Write a sequence for this structure.
């Protein structure tokens, strides 16, 4: 009987592990192919039979990407825009989340409901009004247009508010009794205790900004302001088809996101779980 009982859980574990391995492989194979194709000549990428790994390392794709295109400039633009958007969005989200979580004021629930309600609006609804605003201000084809419209993030306010509800109010009241100002409380108590949710927002905002394609496509006109996601498709045209360089740029373009996630992954998981403790 004992052996029969052990066989059931063992079989479930084996099948579960096999399913997880298959899911991981299905996720990694396309990424591995991007790396492999970036090290192949252009005429070898689509050769038959299919090759997952190159026979030899071919680095001309990376040389062409750096020397013959504006990839370095695109990469720099993406970094500036993503970092600026992320830092500003985190600062605004923490401030608003702190207010909604720890202060009482008129129409608090209504205002929070309106903020959350904006999550239901598709991005396409606000693109035309935003573009008209950027045109009126003369900000098209500038960093201002690529950064400022997306620094207020409703999902960030929600995450910050939910996490700060778990911070004891008594801790804040004790700091006020000791004479600490609201700015001091926010800077020295709230921000350090909110590191898990800061990690969550940092990964979400940075990834969304780095991968943003539609908004730069609308507001950018000069190639010097291209981002990685906007510049790489320009490598493929009816007259120039640099698929190897496109794969090389795609691989290099994923590295910042991978690094950000690896650095903050532990706090990311803690922050995701913390928001479910209180409503």
């Amino acid at each position: 009987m004992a052996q029969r009982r052990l066989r059931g859980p063992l079989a479930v574990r084996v099948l579960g592990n096999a399913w997880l391995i298959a899911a991981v492989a299905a996720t990694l194979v396309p990424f591995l192919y991007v790396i492999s194709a970036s090290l192949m000549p252009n005429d070898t990428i689509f050769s038959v039979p299919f090759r997952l790994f190159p026979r030899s390392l071919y680095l001309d794709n990376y040389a062409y990407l750096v020397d013959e295109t504006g990839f370095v400039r695109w990469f720099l633009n993406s970094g500036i825009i993503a970092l600026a958007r992320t830092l500003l969005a985190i600062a605004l989200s923490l401030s608003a989340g702190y207010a909604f979580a720890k202060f009482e004021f008129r129409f608090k629930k209504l205002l929070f409901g309106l903020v959350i309600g904006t999550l239901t609006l598709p991005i396409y609804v606000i693109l035309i009004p935003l573009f008209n605003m950027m045109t009126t201000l003369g900000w098209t084809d500038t960093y201002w247009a690529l950064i400022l419209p997306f620094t207020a993030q409703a999902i960030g306010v929600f995450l910050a508010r939910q996490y700060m509800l778990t911070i004891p109010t008594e801790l804040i009241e004790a700091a006020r009794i000791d004479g600490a100002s609201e700015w001091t409380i926010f800077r020295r108590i709230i921000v350090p205790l909110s590191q898990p949710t800061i990690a969550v927002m940092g990964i979400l905002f940075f990834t969304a900004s780095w991968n943003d394609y539609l908004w730069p496509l609308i507001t950018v006109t000069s190639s010097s302001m291209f981002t990685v996601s906007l510049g790489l498709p320009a490598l493929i045209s009816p007259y120039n088809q640099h698929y190897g360089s496109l794969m090389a740029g795609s691989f290099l373009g994923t590295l910042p996101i991978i690094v950000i996630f690896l650095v903050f992954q532990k706090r990311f998981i803690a922050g995701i779980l913390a928001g479910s403790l209180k409503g």
About this structure: The chain has one domain: 64-274. The two ends are 46 Å apart (CA to CA).
